[in-house]
Amino acid sequence: MIIGATSWVQPGTYYENARILEDVVDLVELLFYTWDKETEGVISNEMQYLRELELKYTVHLPVDNVGNCQRVYSFFKDAEFPVRNFTLHPIPEWEGFIAGKEDVSLENLVSTYPRYPRMTLDIGHAILTGLEPDYFLGAEVEIKEVHLSGVKAEADHQEIVDDKELKYLKIFSRDGLMVILEIFNLKSLMVSKRRVEEWQNRWMKGY
After folding, report:
1. Contact at 8 Å (CB) between 15 and 8?
2. Cα distance between residue 149 and residue 123, in whole Å
3. pLDDT (0 to 100) of residue 160
4. Start-to-end CA span in the chain (Å)
5. The CATH number of the domain where 130 resides is what?
6. Within 99-207, where are the H helices?
7. Which domain holds residue 167?
């Protein structure tokens, strides 16, 4: 597994967060909830510095409309920035946007969870929805990326404190699988990462 974190673990810009995370994880998910001139300006100014960090990157596409998804996707493609995967929510008209894009995967939400040949598996969403792992298994579905966080009191993006999320992860774990800890607090992220690593070591030893 390649363990990563989001570009928001404390207040600051993409680069400010990534610079902190460089010594913590190997992968950063750049978050874009929308796309406007301010956001474009920030990422444009910081892209050179992001390239210089010892990190790999994925991108979470905007969640408001597919027009902004296309703008973000085109921005990174035009810049030839090394994005390992783009994650897309099943928002209206998602089918037309994702068609033919081998580097875009569809994320399951709590409210809607269509299956697609390339998926970003959000384990927290799956637990909250009550989906069994079998839903995502099969030759017709490839898990490109996993989003992992603790689930507590019907809310995800919490610190990981027990094994229920990790047992789910065991089914899909493989060499090179990108696992993003979607926890938006640096201290909680560190605790959760340590727990994932401890679990992985136990699992590798057959415990």
Report:
1. no
2. 7
3. 85
4. 18
5. 3.20.20.150
6. 123-129, 164-172, 186-204
7. 2-204
Would you call 176 helix, strand, or coil by DSSP? coil
Question: 142: closest CA among 175, 165, 115?
Answer: 115
Q: Give the dihedral of Cα atoms 187, 173, 124, 77; nearest 10 deg.
A: 80
Residue 10: strand, helix, or coil: coil
Query: Residues near 138 by Cβ (< 8 Å), separated by ≥ 6?
Result: none
Q: What is the mean pLDDT of each run of 10 residues along the chain (207 residues)?
A: 96 98 98 98 98 98 98 98 98 97 96 93 91 83 93 78 79 90 95 89 65
What is the Rg, in whole angstroms, of the alpha carbon atoms belonging to the chain?
16
How many structural domains compose the chain? 1
Q: How far apart are CA 196 and CA 181, in angstroms?
A: 10
| CA separation for the pair 59, 30 (Å, rounded) | 5
CA distances from 67 to 61, 128, 139, 159 (A): 11, 29, 31, 33
pLDDT at 205: 60
Give the model's pLDDT for residue 204: 60
Beta bridge partners of 155: 152
d(CA 200, CA 205): 9
Q: Which residue has the tokens 């810009």?
A: 13
Burial of 183 per CB tally in 10 Å (0-12, 13-18, 19+):
buried
